[in-house]
Write a structure and sequence with these properties.
Layout lengths: L11 H28 L1 H5 L3 H28 L5 H5 L5 H35 L3 H33 L6 H20 L1 H10 L1 H11 L1 H10 L3 H30 L20 H14 L2 H7 L1 H15 L1 H10 L7 H13 L5 H4 L7 H6 L4 H31 L3 H28 L9 H5 L2 H23 L6 H33 L1
């Protein structure tokens, strides 16, 4: 964020903007954890400050784990310079130490987002004590070692598992999706969690003492029991030391393991000729499948579509009653849910980074004989397939659950396909207008490019315009009339976008 395309430092204005953005993100997290800490004040006031500190320690370790588990895997076992460093007269333990230092700093920063608000609220409520403050500060320095111990173990198993399978991106995606599911579930239940901590603190304390004993010692220690804190520190250093010893002895083997897995036996078979459009689509699909950062950041909306659809099918009566209570007529529920699913689909922005992801290899596409529109077709079809299929499935689930009329269901399905196609074409146009071709890691165009942000916001803009139009015309048009008009308008928009891509879009692409 502080360097330009050529690797040189950015100007003062760009650097200031990046710093302001980082501070804004940090303050957002501080605000969130201050809010949580203030919700926990009754726990401190009831004389159970050790439980408050234990919970804060657990939360900070989870936060540190979020920032370090995949970094541990990538920096220890998947680093591109592993082979070069191991070929030098340098001990594997020294390579590990240097990388652990960087991971410690990263984990420390993540944990500060929890521990600083927690400390401020604790000392404001319980009163200042020099011993407690000194122990709290020491605990802040020690806790990242606990997170790193867990991260190293998880990273070890991820690396071990990755060495046995061919598609390593599947591991990253699976672990990340599992983490997001746990995170969102926890956020939905945050009120219940706080109530349990306040009103059932005795049970929670027993649970922590039995299953998370080091955090129980941490809470007792900072609350005034120096001996308990010393035992916590000894346990943490001992666990971290043992794991580091194991890692130093297995690092060489895992870092140099043959990643090719089983060799495939060659089977002679005839090559099937396919069209250029299909070949480009297969190319895009293969790259998407093998790029975890592309999957997680540009197609997470597809997972949300399926989750929302399943939740609606299971909780149909409750959600329907809630919408009716808020003034939505019964007959409009399929349309309302269809628009909600379109908004969820807007979270996908594959096409808005697909050109940038070609990077310096864009010249290969320029050199291929054939029609540039076939290249565009492959990128649009990837977005349409990844987004459109779950969107159509979601609308079918909604229509079946609400027993919608057949015409309504057909119009919703057709509109879903058109909506996805328009999103795909809009994203591709944005990427052609604002490309980011200079990068060394796919994360840059996917997460740090203007086209990525604009692509996502354009999708949300379409969705909100659709929602606003539905509300405004609710008493003028029937649901089927509204859907028919929407289908016609989006068809015309798709034609216009296709014409732009076939003329100005080709010129922009050839100039990259």
């Amino acid at each position: 964020m502080l360097k330009g395309k050529d690797g040189k430092s950015r100007g003062a204005g760009a650097k200031a903007g990046a710093v302001v953005l980082m501070l804004f993100i940090a303050l957002t997290f501080f605000g969130m954890f201050f809010s949580f800490s203030f919700m926990m004040v009754p726990v401190i006031e009831s004389g159970n400050g050790e439980l408050y500190i234990s919970v804060s320690g657990i939360l900070s370790v989870l936060m540190g784990l979020m920032g370090s588990v995949f970094l541990a895997y990538n920096s220890l076992y998947e680093a591109k310079d592993n082979d070069m460093l191991l070929s030098m007269p340098v001990l594997p333990s020294m390579i590990l130490f240097s990388r652990m230092a960087g991971l410690y700093i990263t984990t420390f920063i993540f944990e500060m987002l929890v521990l600083i608000p927690s400390a401020v609220v604790y000392f404001m409520t319980a009163g200042f004590s020099a011993i407690s403050f000194a122990l709290y500060f020491t605990g802040i320095l020690i806790l990242p070692l606990f997170s790193l111990s867990v991260a190293f173990v998880l990273g070890f198993f991820i690396a071990l598992f990755a060495s046995k399978i061919r598609n390593k991106s599947l591991i990253t995606v699976t672990f990340s999706v599992a983490f997001f599911c746990v995170y969102y579930f926890s956020m939905m239940k945050i009120g219940d969690i706080v109530n349990i901590l306040i009103y059932r603190s005795d049970i929670v304390t027993v649970f922590i003492k039995k299953w998370l004993y080091p955090f129980y010692l941490l809470g007792k220690g900072i609350n005034g029991d120096v001996t308990s804190f010393a035992v916590f520190a000894v346990i943490t250093f001992a666990v971290f030391g043992v794991i580091c010893l194991i890692l130093s002895r297995t690092f060489f083997k895992l870092a140099t393991v043959n990643k090719g897995q089983k060799k495939l036996k060659y089977k002679e078979k005839k090559a099937k000729q396919s069209s250029a459009k299909l070949a480009y689509f297969k190319k895009e699909l293969l790259f998407f499948k093998n790029t975890p950062v592309y999957i997680l950041n540009c197609s997470f909306g597809s997972l949300m579509l399926l989750v929302v659809s399943i939740i609606f099918a299971v909780k149909k009566e409750t959600l329907s009653a809630l919408m009716i209570q808020n003034g939505f007529p019964v007959f409009s529920l399929p349309l309302i849910m269809g628009i909600a699913l379109c908004l969820a689909a807007s979270g996908n922005n594959l096409s808005s980074v697909s050109v940038s992801l070609e990077g310096r290899n864009i010249y290969l596409l320029h050199s291929f004989p054939g029609d540039t529109r076939d290249i565009f077709f492959g990128k649009i079809m990837l977005h349409t397939a990844v987004t459109g299929i779950p969107l159509v499935i979601g609308n079918i689930i909604v229509c079946i659950s609400l027993e919608a009329e057949l015409i309504t269901a057909l119009l919703l399905v057709v509109f879903s396909i058109l909506f996805t196609a328009v999103l795909a074409e809009t994203g591709l146009i944005i990427n052609l207008l604002f490309p980011k071709m200079e990068w060394t890691n796919e994360t840059v165009p996917v997460k740090q490019s203007l086209s990525s942000v604009l692509g996502m916001f354009s999708g949300f803009a379409y969705g909100f315009v659709l929602l606003f139009s539905g509300i405004v015309t609710a008493e003028l048009l029937s649901m089927q009339e509204f859907l028919l008009i929407a289908v016609v308008l989006f068809s015309l928009l798709a034609v216009l976008l296709t014409r732009w891509l076939g003329t100005k879009g080709i010129k922009k692409f050839m100039q990259l």
